[in-house]
Amino acid sequence: MSKIQETIKNIKPIDESFYEKAQKRLDNLTKPQGSLGRLEEFARRIAAITENLNPVINKKVIFTFAGDHGVVEEGVSAFPKEVTPQMVLNFLRGGAGINVLARHAGCEVKVVDIGVDYDFGKVDGLIQKKVIRGTKNIRRTSAMTRQDAEKCIEVGIDLADEYAKKGYHIFGTGEMGIANTTPSSAIIAVFSGRPVEDVTGKGTGIGDAVFQNKVTVIEDAILKNKPNPKDPIDVLAKLGGAEIAGICGLVLGAAKNKIPVVVDGFISTAGALIAYELEHKVKDYMFAAHNSVEKGHKVMLERIGLRPFVDLDLRLGEGTGAAIGISLIEAGVKIYKEMATFNDAGVSESIEKAVTS
Amino acid sequence: MSKIQETIKNIKPIDESFYEKAQKRLDNLTKPQGSLGRLEEFARRIAAITENLNPVINKKVIFTFAGDHGVVEEGVSAFPKEVTPQMVLNFLRGGAGINVLARHAGCEVKVVDIGVDYDFGKVDGLIQKKVIRGTKNIRRTSAMTRQDAEKCIEVGIDLADEYAKKGYHIFGTGEMGIANTTPSSAIIAVFSGRPVEDVTGKGTGIGDAVFQNKVTVIEDAILKNKPNPKDPIDVLAKLGGAEIAGICGLVLGAAKNKIPVVVDGFISTAGALIAYELEHKVKDYMFAAHNSVEKGHKVMLERIGLRPFVDLDLRLGEGTGAAIGISLIEAGVKIYKEMATFNDAGVSESIEKAVTS
């Protein structure tokens, strides 16, 4: 059995009895029942995912996978592909958006070269797992071979296994790759059957003419490659993204290891969607952090059945939304663990009155 | 001139030139322009409010004002009024929701007795500024005298002055007061002219029959007291809330001292709304943190022109949404201050290419 098949086989359904047990404690805290809304949901879900009624979220890590995209030569992005390695180096120096927001949330950032078309040589802090030097131009051919797509997924699975073993409590996903909204839109167009225009946005900031071109390029890529939506790895290999594949693997590995995984924006959700199409059970281990400006994001989240909770008009990627999401999920767990119960606070008599009045 | 009039006179319009100057730096950071959405807005606004292009958010404090409401005797709440002092004591012991979320955000919590119908005696940590022992039942009479309403507003102004002098950088608002969604709905009904039913929710969790009664009570209170929407202090005095008045004063004082103030949910926004009706310029100093479940909240925010950014289905109050909001605003300021510029990161050449391609 391949590593991917084995991982999928080992993803277990959530033990739903933990929801109820955790809610019992939440209902005993000094607040009206349910009044902390989704913070309570986060606590319940973390308890169920980790099968622990006293869950801990201390060691937090975001994986930012980087890869290049041959389709950039079709003029779909506002930025040239040299920016991918430059931003990787910026991540390693701590100067990017993800570094600032991860520090704010007390998260580590691990930067993974899974498909950048650049030779970094030896560079401190970079996790070097390059499978390809960028995808091919999907308007003309398949992004990568099926074997390479599987290798990229395995990189994500291996990282999940490694960091689970190291005792991390929560993962976040992130990515960097000039032009990678293009494959992401292509992927959701194929799975949803929606017109490309409905699931395509303006990425990092392209004008109307470039947008029209981007839509045409994606339509051509789908026509040319004929990805089979019943075969998620076929869709991934043909439309690509080494970083999207890495995220898919990380999500599968997180679910297998019973580790909650917070999915960033549009591109990350493309990776999470491939994982979901491979095995629906991963959904219960995932959290969608924020509402991206990219309109295809909403279609993805509806398909998976996840509801985001931060509305900051972000469209940067890198894992920035995941960092914010992780901090709020941690807040939910702290509510669960640190609030006084009615008994502790001597508010019990009033409650009795309230219930009987 | 009264303290309130003097405070209002000293609220200056924002110096909008700071928006542009701050945006210039934001546009120079290693990210596509505008891609951090509202985090960038927060940084711009904090720079403009504090008139400082290198703003600091270290000392953070949330004021949780507590007061009782005579209207509780009409059966509008799921909880008896004894819960107000019990929760005050819970705040002081650090066991409530606001304590947990404020700690998570690195905020202090100051608990203010402004109108609780209970004698706390000497108790460590409580800011004792009691003006009234609860409001009167607004279905029968005015909540309080105009003089008492003004005194409550002055308590908030004084706290803003004091904590501005102590060097705090940002304020949050919070409240505790059994039955205080009732005056809050009444206040927005009067200012908006909307039917009471459209701006009334189920508070901490009442059933349908109690809800219908609550609507009737509010309608009666408005008919009985005839508050004048052109005279915001008249509305405040007649429909009440000592804690709502304190929050109004805190917002006025924050604006005068050029200190950003993050407004929590429905009841806090009722206080902020009174401040806004007194002086529209306060709007530029305020941030709305979250979307409350209470449906009148949206009507208030639209009236003021504020857009919240957290969607967690909270309906607890206390300042819990403000704590989360403060953390995200701080994240925006860190983005502004800590991210590398294109020059720092050596990404400039690519950008030149991007701009000219």
Sequence-ordered SSE layout with sheet pairings:
The structure is a homodimer.
Chain A: H1 3-9, H2 17-26, H3 37-50, E1 60-67, H4 83-93, H5 97-105, E2 108-115, E3 126-128, H6 146-165, E4 170-176, H7 181-192, H8 208-225, H9 232-239, H10 242-256, E5 261-263, H11 266-278, E6 286-288, H12 295-304, H13 320-338, H14 342-345, H15 348-356
Parallel strand pairs in A: 1-2, 1-4, 2-3, 4-5, 5-6
Helix pairs in contact in A: 2-3, 3-13, 5-13, 6-9, 6-10, 7-8, 7-11, 7-12, 9-11, 10-11, 11-12
Order of helices and strands of chain A: HHHEHHEEHEHHHHEHEHHHH
Spatial order of the strands forming the largest sheet of chain A? 3-2-1-4-5-6
Q: Within the CATH hierarchy, at the fold level, what is the topology of the largest domain in chain A? A: Rossmann fold
The figure for the number of domains of chain A is 2
CATH architecture of the largest domain in chain A: 3-Layer(aba) Sandwich
Overall structural class of chain A, as computed from helix and strand content, comes to alpha/beta
What's the number of helices of chain A?
15
Per CATH, the superfamily of the largest domain in chain A is Nicotinate-nucleotide-dimethylbenzimidazole phosphoribosyltransferase (CobT), large domain
Spatial separation of the terminal alpha carbons of chain A: 62 Å
Oligomer: homodimer
Main sheet overview of chain A: 6 strands, parallel
Q: State the helical fraction of chain A.
A: 40-55%
Gyration radius of chain A, rounded = 21 Å
Percent strand of chain A: 5-15%
The low-confidence parts of chain A are: 351-357
Number of strands of chain A: 6
- Would you state the CATH class of the largest domain in chain A? Alpha Beta
Largest interface (CB within 8 Å) is between: A-B, 62 and 62 residues
Average pLDDT for all residues of chain A: 95
Shape call of chain A: globular
